[in-house]
């Protein structure tokens, strides 16, 4: 899945590991691309998925709109009593999470294996 708007692009790659959906985000998560993440995530939840790992290794940038879309995902997960973990943030994205207080809201892991184990 790709969304292109205003010259910005974000790729969302989806794969299953057992009953866990691994979503890899690559590019920029901002006002131009956050709607595509929200739409893809909502569709996966509607299909009955409840466990998610968001791999943020390829995320170059996250804006306040991007943070809101991740918060919306977390709220949806809470409603369905699912589980959500974030993995492999680069330093810039981690700084944004730390400064915004989002590091305290989300379960964040260094590796995909740690996140999968934690939510299994």
Automatic annotation (TrEMBL):
SUPFAM superfamilies: SpoIIaa-like (SSF52091). Gene3D superfamilies: STAS domain. Coiled coil: none annotated. Residues 10-119 form the STAS domain. It holds the Pfam family STAS. PROSITE patterns: STAS. InterPro entries: Anti-sigma_ant, STAS_dom, STAS_dom_sf. Belongs to the anti-sigma-factor antagonist family. PANTHER family: ANTI-SIGMA FACTOR ANTAGONIST, ANTI-SIGMA FACTOR ANTAGONIST TM_1081-RELATED-RELATED. This is Anti-sigma factor antagonist. It comes from Paenibacillus germinis. The lineage of its organism: Bacteria, Bacillati, Bacillota, Bacilli, Bacillales.
